[in-house]
């Protein structure tokens, strides 16, 4: 079963300026997460709007049959992308999707927005 990182590519952090920017903050984060996830066994996909605009930039970590998580308020940085991918790897290695807090990468602590229970079979 594959763990997916879904990245909102329309996210714009406070201060984003359409006149100066060539990409959204979400597109920039997506490119960094995709690069960081390459070869890790974690899949990525982009979607347009996860409806978490007040917490941009947003991602969702999920897999079939496991608890999933929405996370937000990331910066489009290599450090944040690496933390997201590291957490997703831990999620992938977990039977239920739960990862003990003490094991979370520092870069995801404080970014959790909501938990999604698995859809019934």
Automatic annotation (TrEMBL):
Protein name: Putative metal-binding protein
UniProt superkingdom: Bacteria
InterPro entries (alphabetical): DUF1636
Pfam families, per database record: DUF1636 (PF07845)
């Amino acid at each position: 079963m594959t763990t997916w990182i879904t990245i909102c590519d329309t996210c714009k952090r406070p201060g984003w300026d359409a006149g100066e920017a060539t990409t959204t903050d979400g597109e920039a984060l997506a490119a960094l997460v995709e690069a960081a996830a390459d070869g890790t066994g974690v899949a990525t996909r982009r979607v347009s709007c996860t409806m978490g605009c007040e917490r941009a930039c947003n991602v969702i970590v999920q897999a079939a049959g496991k608890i999933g998580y929405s996370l937000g308020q990331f910066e489009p940085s290599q450090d944040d992308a690496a933390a997201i991918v590291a957490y997703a790897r831990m999620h992938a290695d977990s039977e239920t999707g739960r990862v003990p807090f003490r094991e979370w990468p520092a870069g995801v602590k404080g970014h959790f927005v909501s938990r999604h229970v698995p859809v019934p079979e």
